[in-house]
Protein: Fumarylacetoacetate (FAA) hydrolase family protein
Organism: Marinomonas primoryensis
Amino acid sequence: MTNKLAFPAKEPVLAKIADSDSLFPVHRIFCVGRNYHAHATEMGVTVDKSTQEPFYFLKDSSTYVASGSSIEYPPQTANYHYEMEFVVAIGKAGFNVNEDQAESLIFGYACGLDMTRRDLQLKARETGRPWDLGKDFEESSILAPIVPIAKTGVLTEGKIELAVNGEIKQSSDLNLLIWNVREIIAHLSKFYHLQPGDLIYTGTPDGVGPVIKGDHITGSISNIGKIDLKISI
């Protein structure tokens, strides 16, 4: 007897690749928390790399939204924040890799937005609960087309910037990441078997803040490209 699905299986989540007809099947979305000192400070915490390790939260692949989209203001929040991020796309499997091997796992890079229900995140933080309601919700992982590393080479620096309605809100450099990409991949691979299709949002600079209905978010990272998002009225 052949088993039948009780309902249709989830469709694969397919992200765009710059200047290509091919698509990138999204497997998992990992996000690095507090990976710029200035952002950690504005969130009321300090990070000491000599005594602390990176930490992560995950978002479901269904939260993916392509750059250029218009999305709804999310439910159950009154403090909806943008977070501009440098995203690393994994194209090769790896487990417990060292830093020298880490770059061989990279498929490419992209601009990303980690949209956040800040009030729900902070409420969870204050009560010692997981951040899921504040982070892992529909239409919260915005991604521009992925640029293959073959076109960019390994990136360790470059301006990362975000504007709301044309006004610059975030401006920093990738060389200010507390844990760089090689360190993040090597560390994360101690805990997970990284797979092709994994995305790593590497953290946001300082300057995060709220948006409201009708706002237009734009961002860019040197040598990678731009990202664009509108919040529906």
